[in-house]
Predict the structure.
Amino acid sequence: MPEIRSKWYVIQVRTGHEERARALISQAAAQAAEGGLFLAADAADAAGVASAVGFEGAASAAGLKEAASGLRAASAAGILRECFVPKACVAQKVDGKWIPCERVLLPGYLIAVTARADQLEPVLRRVPDLTRILGNDNAFTPLDASEVAWLEASTSQSDRVVEMSEGCLEGGRLRITSGPLLGKEAWVRKVNHRKKVAYLEMQMFGRTIKAQLGLKVKRKRV
């Protein structure tokens, strides 16, 4: 049977509670996977006891236990491969010096990567904070390929932080020279040069999202 491909979904949560919601969702998904495999694990234990009649009983029991552990991990990954809060790297002035810091990129939203959106939806009902997968009336709607590509190119699975971009002014117009905002000048509505922040309006998951990203304007050209 071919492997079901994972898709990226946007989950709406309470603004300011993104990290707490992420942790609760991940925990609930793991518990759901564990609970769904209790019967399979019990069956494996029973088979291990039966095989213990033979001289390979101990080895069989150990193998079955290891297999059951692997099934639990695979099931958890099947329900929720990854859940993360996209962050943005910006500059913050501390004791007269600008230092990099992180802030939530999309306030009120997080990303879930799953091949089983139908199984994830009941998991969200267990989370105390208000959560829901965005979609239409008939089905959950995953991020489109271009949105996933930008997030994947701008972050890594081990570090979902969008780094700062660099740009310059040419004839009074902003031109991004490097970083995640390269080619995305249309997103920029305002730049605070002192704070090194670009205020954005991004078209994502079928709506206009306001966000902030770090932006260094290195030099100005006439």
In short: The chain has two domains: 1-158, 164-222. The first strand starts at residue 7 and ends at 12.
